[in-house]
Amino acid sequence: MRYLPLSPDDRSQMLGAIGVPSVDDLFKDVPQSARRDGLLDLPMHQGELEVERAMEAMSARNRPAGAGPSFLGGGAYRHHIPASVDHLIQRSEFLTSYTPYQPEISQGTLQFLFEFQTQVAMLTGMEIANASMYEGATACAEAVMMAGRLTRRHKAVLSGGLHPHYGAAVRTTSQFGAMDVVSKDPTLDGGEDLSADLDDQTACVVVQNPDVFGRLHDYSGLAAACHEAGALLVVAVTEVVSLGAVKSPGEMGADIVAAEGQSLGVGLSFGGPYVGLMAAHKKHVRQMPGRLCGEAADVDGRRSYVLTLSTREQHIRREKATSNICTNSGLCALAFGIHVALLGEVGMRRLAGLNHAAAVDLAGRLEKIPGVTVADGAFFNEFTVTLPGPAADVVQTLADRDILAGVPASRLFPDRDELANVLLVAATETNTSPEMDALVAGLTEVLS
Amino acid sequence: MKPDTSTGHKGLELEEPLLFELDGRDRSGVDLPEPDLSNNRLGGLERTAPIGLPGLSEPEVVRHFVRLSQKNYSIDGNLYPLGSCTMKHNPRINEKIARMPGFADAHPLQPESTVQGALEVLDTLGHWLKTITGMPAVAMSPAAGAHGELCGLMAIRSAHTANGDPRKRVLVPESAHGTNPATATLCGYKVDPVPGNDRGRIDLSAVKAKLGDDVAAIMLTNPNTLGLFEDEVLEVAEAIHSVGGYFYCDGANLNAIVGRVRPGDLGVDAMHINLHKTFSTPHGGGGPGSGPVAFSEALAPFAPLPQVVTKDGKLHLLETKTGEAAQSFGRLRSFHGQMGMFTRALAYMMSHGADGLRQIAEDAVLSANYVLSQLQDDMSVAYPAPCMHEVLFDDTFLEGTGVTTLDFAKAMIDEGYHPMTVYFPLVVHGAMLTEPTESESKASLDNLISTLKYLADKAKSGDATHFTEAPRLAPRRRVDETAAARNPVLRWAPPSSPAQAAE
């Protein structure tokens, strides 16, 4: 077996040195009834060629989003990733290292985490950020628990515009704790007055920008109302590229930002692994979950970086920890950081602008199709259209013609019959004009 | 030591400023056209404030990150004996497979008819995991080991709640990973610590004494965090089941028993499997991980959403609490799980096969016991042999030398080794938990052994300074963590302008 260096001769020499006749003797503490002598009922080992072939066959039974027109969003977005991102994250020293517990030989990981924290704070308009979370929805759930600790209150109000997976993760994670979660209904007209739900038990209000239907909101007024009531405003962002074009949550008065960073550097990968972003005010850092990297000095006075404030964390605090989280999404955070570094200020703004321009272009084309109604109002790179019939059927019909038209709202809200005809459509810098033509032609034909 | 050079560089090892300190202004490493925003629909919410990012060309960015990488230790470079972390070889075919377009470029919300291969990966990996654990169900979505613990405890709480009483306490050995008590607390349980016995195993009589009908579960790591197999595990399982409680097994140490012992045969009701340990998905400097959870028949109905089911010969994702998922405790995260880790882990399992998986456990345990046998006279082994896949030393051998476990670890750095896990488990004084894994050749193990012998001799010879001053040769010497925590600086900020400074 190519991955196992020990030869039969090595093994017998080592057994001799240990002083036991057989490897079975090393397993003598396993109760007799639980020892398995035979092999598991699984295939035997295979060479690299055979494994590659088998996996390639499975890969071929998927349609890659980029193999044709694709307008899917709904919390995961297809963007171009510069080749150097994937090359750099595959360097052995990044890919095959562990959590930087020994800072003297982990400055590479630590410095990029410090840079990542800075980039996330800048993009979200917040003072500080942590070294990443699993992904956006779990970051959102952690943000709600953090708000509970900070305010010592136990009610969270979730906007109807919050991605339903995020809402579900919040409800699941807090269902056994002390947090009461009030989930508002999704509405297509956008009218939602969350300030009416604020009371003296409200720890936080959770909103999303752009919301799950792609709409942009100015949450400044809501932020003021939250603060007036002693509550925190949590802003979720599922399309982080929007931050290059849109006023940041920090500028709107957000207290905690929980975001999905997948759009920058990470790729679709059928839903994971992604990278959760969390940013907040500096004064709240001691209630923040997850790893934090801080600046330090070594004994020679040289600037260094180190994991810090770990007294919040489970390996020190055990049952009193701020969270049970023990890892972050290090390599995805690195990919994010490299992509953002490559873009820079100009690139980030242009990328966001191109996304918006593509979506505006597509909305203009779809508006002209008889039977299709494009939602009014402000959006970034995703918007909803209402079709004359169930969107899921249209999506399936077009998928059979190799066009991925978007995400039917029924996929995200299966219990909401009133959203059955709604389709979420996203356009990014990767969508070409002929792809948009193909969608328009396909949709026109299916609806006629 | 700080090099005596004009640049601060040390040969191949280059000092590197922060990205934000590089000379970057209006350049970009990505060529993008200027967008036409004459017809914008941002509703007056345009960003007006600068983000503050530096503008760098591609070669500058590449050089920056290559230089950073060169300051990291890695398993590709040398043996990485971090106990409890299973730092084994990461095959590159797995990287290639994860990047196949059908996997890497599949959107999670594509119609099921267009992602049958991706669902097949979930289903096939699930089958391997069920076969390896000997358990009937597996939840794929947890993002990491600790997330898997949360998933397992939520299923346990849901099962009790369905039975009319969620119960109050969870028994957790004092030697457990910190995530275990943190997770139990998050699920609304009171943690009741259980001491170990003098053989390094959980004290069965203490477990029995704590049992009651308010005990929801026990969380036991097996092999445990001291590197020992819990030889009374069947009795523990029987005891917890006798009061209607569940047996949660922390599967962090599955590498020691894969293919030889099925956790299901030990009475386990729920166990997370760290794909980034036993099944070699790269640790990536601390994630992303993946922590699928295997369930017993009793807990399977409460598994989270989504679930993969077969209907009419096609694979489907069950995303609502209906059908076989009617009692599911809900969704833990967005989408379906760590697909990029699933493809890597599945490729790893297929490469080994039933025969290779069993050999993994045997070689991992053999290697740890070989290290133990060669060092038992030089260092102090905490518990008598045999160990499982990791050997635990305590600091008795350093008594009176003026050298601490931390000093010893830092001296290993100068010798070219990443230290073992130190000061964990907490129940052993000055713990050094050493896990060589099955990826090391005998020559590599012998090199580690001779290095540790040399250091143990040196400590005993009275040369404490060699250790207290270490590391001398690493990119950095010891870092002042206390000062960093006292006044946390968590991001770069632009130097204040002269005007501000004057205020």
What low-confidence regions of chain B span 5 or more consecutive residues with pLDDT below 50?
A: 499-503
- Chain pair sharing the greatest interface: A-B, 212 and 206 residues
Structural Rg of chain B: 26 Å
Distance between the termini of chain A: 59 Å
Biggest beta-sheet profile of chain B: 7 strands, mixed
* Share in β-strands of chain A: 5-15%
Uncertain spans of chain A, ≥5 residues at pLDDT below 50?
none
Strand content of chain B: 5-15%
Q: What structural category do the secondary elements of chain A indicate?
A: alpha/beta
Name given to the CATH architecture of the largest domain in chain A: 3-Layer(aba) Sandwich
The sequence of SSEs of chain A as H and E is HHHHHEHEHEEHEHEEEEHHEEHEHEH
* Main β-sheet, spatial strand arrangement of chain B: 1-7-6-5-4-2-3
As for the number of domains of chain B, it is 3
Helix content, binned percent of chain A:
25-40%
Shape of chain A: globular
- Main sheet strand line-up of chain A: 1-7-6-5-4-2-3
Distance between the termini of chain B: 39 Å
Task: Describe the model.
Chain A is of the alpha/beta class. Chain A contains 14 helices and 13 strands. Chain A folds into two domains: 67-80 and 345-447, Aspartate Aminotransferase, domain 1 (Alpha-Beta Complex), CATH 3.90.1150.10; 83-339, 3-Layer(aba) Sandwich (Aspartate Aminotransferase, domain 2). Helices cover 37% and strands 13% of the residues of chain A. In chain A, the strands form three sheets. In chain A, strands 1-7-6-5-4-2-3 form a seven-stranded mixed β-sheet, with helices on both faces. In chain A, strands 10-11-13-12 form a four-stranded antiparallel β-sheet. A two-stranded antiparallel ribbon of chain A has the order 8-9. Chain B is of the alpha/beta class and 503 residues long. Mean pLDDT of chain B is 96; it is low at 499-503. Chain B has three domains: 1-31 and 51-71, no CATH class; 93-349, Aspartate Aminotransferase, domain 2, CATH 3.40.640; 358-479, Aspartate Aminotransferase, domain 1. At the A-B interface, α1, α2, α3, α4 and α5 of A face α1, α2, α3, α4 and α5 of B.
